[in-house]
Design a protein that fits this description.
Layout lengths: L2 H22 L6 H7 L14 H4 L9 E10 L6 E7 L10 E2 L2 E3 L7 H13 L6 E6 L3 E2 L4 E10 L12 E8 H4 L5 E8 L2 E8 L6 E2 H15 L3
């Protein structure tokens, strides 16, 4: 480790992790439990996606498109918050929908972490030195044929989002405690090409948090619940 890297760890990473510990204290996602629940950075999860069997007759032909999202946790004095974005209504795909920053992996992305951070920078101006990556959740397959790797990270609470107006209409935070409460997650019916599907949805005031984003948060909760 270079002297610059050592300085960054001492002055930024360690204080940020301590802030995260304090903000998670007493919650389902208590820091030690959270770290045990995540796949470690040196062992990314494999497989086609934990939900693939539910979509086997609906997915487009061919291999999935690899993608990554940043599931960012911001330590606040009042408790940990999850950073989410609402996409602009004019986008061709997923316009107006709530999600994590992220997108398709590019050829020059070293891995899912690099892709998630690059996309977060492009969408909301989140720089790599404002993020400390913790680990992975299970990959998730979308009905549009993407295999999404969720990268869980802690975000510097001093970060101020600058939305890219062509892609992001709004950046907001939701308490992690709310998202980890089973009573706040509901199953709803939608019509997809003439077929009824059941998807997950949170009833957060003013925002519709549903579909892949709700499913990724559900995967986090289930992994935490199953961790000693």
């Amino acid at each position: 480790m270079s002297r610059h890297e050592q300085t960054h760890v001492m002055q930024h990473t360690l204080p940020l992790r301590e802030q995260l510990r304090q903000s998670l204290r007493g919650s389902l996602a208590e820091h030690a439990r959270l770290m045990r629940a995540l796949h470690p950075l040196d062992a990314p999860p494999t497989g086609e996606g934990w939900n693939r069997s539910e979509l086997s007759d609906l997915l487009p032909p061919g291999p999935p498109v690899e993608a990554a999202v940043l599931a960012g946790i911001i330590p606040r004095e009042g408790g940990a918050q999850v950073l989410l974005t609402r996409r602009t209504d004019t986008l061709r795909h997923h316009g107006g929908q709530v999600g994590f920053p992220g997108g398709r992996m590019e050829a020059d992305d070293r891995d899912a972490v690099a892709a998630a951070i690059r996309e977060s920078d492009e969408e909301i101006a989140l720089k790599h030195d404002q993020v400390h990556v913790l680990g992975y959740l299970d990959p998730f397959v979308t009905i549009t044929g993407y295999r999404v790797m969720p990268v869980v990270a802690v975000i510097d609470p001093a970060f101020v989002a600058v939305p890219q107006p062509d892609e992001v209409a709004e950046v907001f935070e939701v308490p992690l405690s709310y998202l980890m409460e089973p009573a706040n997650l509901h199953q709803v019916e939608i019509d997809h090409r003439g077929r009824i599907r059941h998807v997950l949805e949170y009833g957060w005031p003013g925002q519709r948090i549903w579909g892949a984003t709700a499913a990724i948060l559900y995967n986090l909760r289930r992994r935490l619940e199953q961790t000693e």
